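Input chain follows. Return structure tokens only.
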Amino acid sequence: MSTITAQHVRELLSSSDPDPLLVLLEGRPRVVSAAEAGGDRYRGAVEVVSRDDLAAGLGPGTLSEQELEALASRLESVVSELGG
């Protein structure tokens, strides 16, 4: 199983898609559009967080690498608690 990294968080927050999600598919984190997540290709994927939900808890401005890593660690902890 891959770990959620700062790069995944960065990719989610900077996605050009209007409604991106961070999902786990077969234990691997991926950033996909909400529309894609509902399709056959991502059937069985577990939604970790949407950009909107993640951004709602953040202040304005650009996040440092440390902040991105801290967010990734928290998301990984949530996934671990879910058994993902």
